[in-house]
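Hi V.,

You were right to ask for the full record rather than a summary. Here it is.
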Amino acid sequence: MGLGWLPGLIAVVGLLIPTVAGGFAEWPMLVGWLAVLAVFAWLAPAVLPTRRHRITASATFLPVLFLLGWEGGWWLIPADLVWLLVARRSGAERTA
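Predicted structure:
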């Protein structure tokens, strides 16, 4: 069983915890990030076909999430790091 679902789960949990803890005051930010994640999940298989593309995209998104930290990017950094680790690990499994 692959771990490709884990970054998505961490992203959703990372968005929900501060939203619920803040009394749903950040719900517009939650909806915006969920829309961005949904579009990315829909486009990713076509745009990121290889392991190298997924690793490069994950490494590129990390500084972008830091820059968007005040807009909720901090909440997605753990998911991005897990995505990087899963992408690196998935390639190692195929060659082994």
